[in-house]
């Protein structure tokens, strides 16, 4: 209670600073009223329609009346053109619009079919003919393929055409983020549940913000909170180099928008099925193991319509996932059966074991036009997931854990128009997520054998966590001629409660070097000898483990954080060819207090970073004034929050709340090796604990990001863009272990430490200090060819080249929870030895998505009916493999951390094999009566049945030559699977 009250005290202290900044925001906004400078950008979940009204001779038409109408919901908004003929209508929900323009002395005009997506700024160029207002011209607007009004570098959208048609094996919108051209990603998941968090990165960093309907879907900062049915979404988009309106993450923003109801009644139902007969044999399965059973079913439906025409609308969606799939164990490698027999592992716990997946999701959304000035949107989401057991690779069934979760959220958006030129948008989110990871043997320790894998139990036992949070966003917009001024605030308090990890402990076997008359002993033989109580002739004692780690003490820890953001910005339409955006954001990521151990005062302090000012500027220039070419460029500073889960590690790692033990078998009080529960009573209770503390100068990760883009329309509906992206990241975190005695020189040329012996501070074990001295440099080039639907074909083809180098320690998936804080250098005395390719470095990446509808006019009506009504779509990804570190499998420098590399090999000096994924879908529509359609669907995932490796044996060994099993595959993506589906639409 004392620690959490300290958090509240800190909140009050910071509130004064926040108040001063809010005052600054108002002052800057006021100053902007008399100065043609400042900055704004498109909204999170809405779009803008703007343009110029001219006479046929090109002269500006001021005071023209503009009315914008959503043709699906009847929403109406109005504007008046200024002296330059310019008008702007903002915060419009995505949809199809009609724009009518009228002015005395000129014939009125109406443009229909204007498609607007989230974050888009559609620019119209309108020419009115002289004549009577009663004379009206009606045209179907041809949407420009180039967004000349958008200033951020990248805003890729998959809309209502792509979302339901691009084949994604998990039927999760998260899959659509992974195939996006701008991102880098590990191999796409075509197995498992398919509803996990996408491991995507941009700019060489694993930071990303995930939003659904403009509010966060990862409030804790790491994994996604909830899953929404693909059928409940209208569009997904990936945004980079965003404006001052957005923050909390330093790289990538992933947006998804749920569907809304309209004046038309719509219903749908669907069923998708896969099974063993439609699937190839899983990769890496032992040749002696029978092909396991497999089945997967997805079914559900949607319904939407008006509660009151043009006023209130409702949308609902439900989807069920049901799967039984093999989890492939590569424990022991090619000699798995023999290894298992030596260790006494039952055949049912290796090779393959069934993993079940049962989940469902519910979405309810209401949109209400309260009156002419207020529009309200409410959404509720529920997701329930049960998976057991989950885990493939170098583990047995005892290590695999369940995954049970129950996230749910409620959101609100209120848009208020205040007169003709002022808008206010308020968004709210309340969300919670509880997770439980049960295991077969909840009390037995995990046993890890270098190069072989892990078995016997799970070090965490039954792990569980609970996170909850709220988000408040309020943005005020003031349109003044060719300026759109915006100021806003974002508050996101959240907490994370989790069970302490490693409560069961881990015995590690790394092998023994030759000693006396005894030769060297492999890790496997060391473990077998220990199991059989064989005496080591060099010591006269039974063989035992190399190292044991365990946590004891408080079972649960909770941390609270408060992310705050304040911004001012302006969207300055300098003229019809140039738009300039610039602004300033201030971020404060309020951290919890430390947990003081009087014996080590640094445990009582978690420093606050109060200097996160983030200026951003960008421009869009139409050099020829024809809307067919745009040049974009910009620069900004971005900061990244640290998740609450990371602070739990430090607050419980004070040597009192939880004691983190790292011991060798000869240490007094070290437990005897056992496959059963381990006792840490008696002398073991007095063993020194590791500590986790922050350096006093610790700062939030900061990224300088800049870009330059040229985009050109090649033909109607087709564009080519060439983009350069650069990131310079600093303050990237990692930990340095200390309290180690130097006893010599290690093989890598650094200090050789004495392990648990002769510690400078005998009261503690390793003392891990979190620093923020990491850095990373990124240079990337993206070429993208986009074809909007034309002759039934739309596609996007892209090539992404990048170079990522630095000292980042992200180490793959761990970056998504702790952002590298808990990763340590291989040489604590010289971290720069680990400078090298970034963990997300993929030099080459090619993506291709396409949707093709058949529409042919043929002389034969029967032939026409036969060839039309088909939809063919695809997603194809080819990419370089991610880099990885070769490891000796031993603690060669005595720092008690098994991250040593063989001599002569640099950081990330090896790569996984390249990856190619090709998925296809073919569907056929059959119309029933006027509005009903039955669609039959066939899909194939991993069509070439290519072995796409996701993990390899990284144990190189301590010698100059790699072990025979080094770099051999230990896990792979799913083999080829066919899926059949049926859908009903009304």
From TrEMBL:
Recorded protein name is Carboxypeptidase regulatory-like domain-containing protein
Q: Output the Pfam families linked to this UniProt entry.
A: CarboxypepD_reg, OMP_b-brl_4
Recorded GO MF terms? carboxypeptidase activity
Among SUPFAM superfamilies, the record links this protein to: Carboxypeptidase regulatory domain-like, Porins
Q: Name one GO cellular component term.
A: cell outer membrane
- Which key words tag this protein in UniProt? Carboxypeptidase, Cell outer membrane, Hydrolase, Membrane, Protease
InterPro entries for the chain: Beta-barrel_TonB_sf, CarboxyPept-like_regulatory, Oar-like_b-barrel
Subcellular location per UniProt equals: Cell outer membrane
Residue ranges annotated for the TonB-dependent transporter Oar-like beta-barrel domain, each copy included: 258-331, 357-902
- Taxonomically, what lineage is the organism? Bacteria, Pseudomonadati, Acidobacteriota, Terriglobia, Terriglobales
- Keyword Protease listed: yes
